[in-house]
Amino acid sequence: MALAASSALLLLLIGVGPPGQASGPSAHAGQSGKATPAHLTVVQAVPGATVDVSVDGRSVARGAVVGDLLGPFDLAPGSHEVTFTGDGMEVASSLDVTAGDSTDVVLHLPAEVGGDPVVHSYAAPTGEIGPGKARVVLAHTATVAPADVEVNGETVFTNIANGEYAEAEVPAGTHEVALLPTGGTGKPILGPLQVPLDARTLSMIYAYGNPRDGSMNVIAHTSTLAADGAVRPTTIDTGSAGLAGDLAVTAFHPGR
Fold first, then answer.
1. Structural domain contains residue 30
2. What does the pLDDT look like over 10-19, one tens digit per residue?
3. Which of 45, 66, 139, 157 makes a 20 to 30 Å CA pair with 60?
4. What is the pTM of this model?
5. Residues 107, 91: contact at Cβ < 8 Å?
6. Which residue range forms the structural domain that includes residue 79?
């Protein structure tokens, strides 16, 4: 997959990858020595479907419809199975989790029109973040061919296929986001959407549906991230010799 970035957007681009490989925190144990649980959020992204959801054979939801966010559920570290049933389908997916992880499991349609629902998992990158920034994971879970992601009028990720995702850190604020066919310059598949992003947050965003039948939309949820200890500079102290004095530093803002 190709990756393109515009420095004018002031984006810190982290990467593009297949599902289940977004960077996440390492496993850790609680003070008692017992491993802390992992956290699972289930996303129903199949338009028109009503499904029941079970984890390791235990029912966690009935009658979930498109747009439903279920959980988060606490899971013990190790292997687990998430199963979706209903409307004549049964789809199961296995995942391995470690202590402290946060993972989204998403039921969605494949790129092929008329294809059976599939499941992908996405590890939430919940590590610390710098001041004035927000982290975004945008996953392609829609019935469309590979797509490009445009932010504030600039293409920042290209050729993201169904089931894959893009991850970035951006200045906090409202950004205009659109999804277009790869290499295309015409009408967006989705958007443009005005997406507000608060500082020190992680937004997990899933584009789903089919633009041909008007079901294209997004599902998103947001969590708070810890600060990395860095401080946004307002001045640069150049010393006491008087060669340059204090230089003002303009903070980065979206849209500039």
1. no
2. 333 334 555 5
3. 139
4. 0.78
5. yes
6. 7-14+36-248
